Amino acid sequence: MTATIIDGKAFAENLRGRISSHVARLKAEHGVTPGLAVVIVGSDPGSQVYVASKARLTVEVGMHSEKYELPEATSEAEVLALVARLNADPAIHGILVQLPLPPQIDSNAIIALISSDKDVDCFTPASVGKLTIGLPGPVSCTPLGCLMLLRETLGDLSGLEAVIVGRSNLVGKPMAQLLLRENCTVTVAHSRTRNLAEVVRRADIVIAAVGRPNLIRGDWIKPGATVIDVGINRVPAPERGEGKTRLVGDVDFASAVTVAGAITPVPGGVGPMTIACLLANTVTTASLIHGLVPPRDLTA
Ligand code: NAD
């Protein structure tokens, strides 16, 4: 058996098409141009490429984009001042501070200052609380993207066994909340989980969000399961030439594709969905800030 490959790139492109239509309508009917500000501190090359493509796609869907690339040595006070300025800027409806931040900056202090009206990646304690108790509010971009792909692949998720590997605030925990909301039976595994292979083998849905190349092997996967690989790992690729690298996920794709029912590739799976959901969330926050009903087809 060979799994269906879940084409996140194509799904994200389609989602961005719908976002463009909503942005055009917001501009034409209400004079509102949704604006997204992305803040990155330091010079991690991976993050910079990611931020550059976020900015490009933001403009492509017709939104206003601001990108702040600050040097590694930036102080906490400087980042706090920038966030305060963006909170007050009427042209900005979404603020994303790229994590992790350098060690001299307390991420929690920065996150706490982001206006919850502009919290497009569900970072703030208020947004996390709303997600947990089921109140309307922003939904973390990567888990939202995973959920959209799961619904597209499986339809109703009710009653399915879901195993999430990884318990980060950014991916694993909000993913668990979203899948609970879909009536899945949810297990969150992590670095201290015993018999991880056995736990994963129970799952109808596997979400891998660890950051370990090829950790989850085909023989851990229940035949026919749906596998969503969030991991992005850069590994050496000598076959491409000396010093070359390539991206792989947390799932050993070659063995998993022969067992799973459906699987996301890396790259081209969850990554493009994360960016599209960031744009979708910015349309939502822009609508809410202007007292408008946000579009229903862009969120969970
Ligand atoms: P993180 O480092 O914050 O969390 C990793 C989690 O994995 C932890 O909860 C830890 O307990 C668990 N873990 C570590 N080793 C383990 C092991 N051997 N067995 C089981 N669990 C283990 O990472 P994160 O921010 O959640 O990101 C995870 C991965 O997803 C990374 O590769 C990251 O680059 C990627 N990511 C991708 C996207 C995307 O858009 N595709 C978005 C966010 C993160």
Question: How would you describe this protein?
Answer:
The chain is α/β, with parallel strands linked by helices and 300 residues long. It is built from 10 helices and 11 strands. The chain is globular. Bound molecules: nicotinamide-adenine-dinucleotide (NAD). Nicotinamide-adenine-dinucleotide binds at residues 142, 165-168, 170-172, 189-191, 193, 196, 209-212, 215, 230-233, 270-271, 274.
Classify the helix fraction into a percent range: 40-55%
Q: What is the number of beta strands?
A: 11
Work out the strand percent: 15-25%
> The CATH topology of the largest domain, please?
Rossmann fold
In whole angstroms, how far apart are the ends?
31 Å
- Identify low-pLDDT runs: none
Task: Output the CATH class name of the largest domain.
Answer: Alpha Beta
Q: State the fourth-level CATH superfamily of the largest domain.
A: NAD(P)-binding Rossmann-like Domain
Estimate the global geometry from the Cα principal axes.
Answer: globular
* Structural class by helix and strand composition: alpha/beta
Radius of gyration: 19 Å
Trace the largest sheet across and list its strands: 1-11-8-7-5-6
Present as ligands are: nicotinamide-adenine-dinucleotide
Task: Give a summary of the structure in a few sentences.
The protein is α/β, with parallel strands linked by helices and 300 residues long. The protein contains ten helices and eleven strands. The protein folds into two domains: 88 residues, Leucine Dehydrogenase, chain A, domain 1 (Rossmann fold), CATH 3.40.50.10860; 131 residues, NAD(P)-binding Rossmann-like Domain (Rossmann fold).
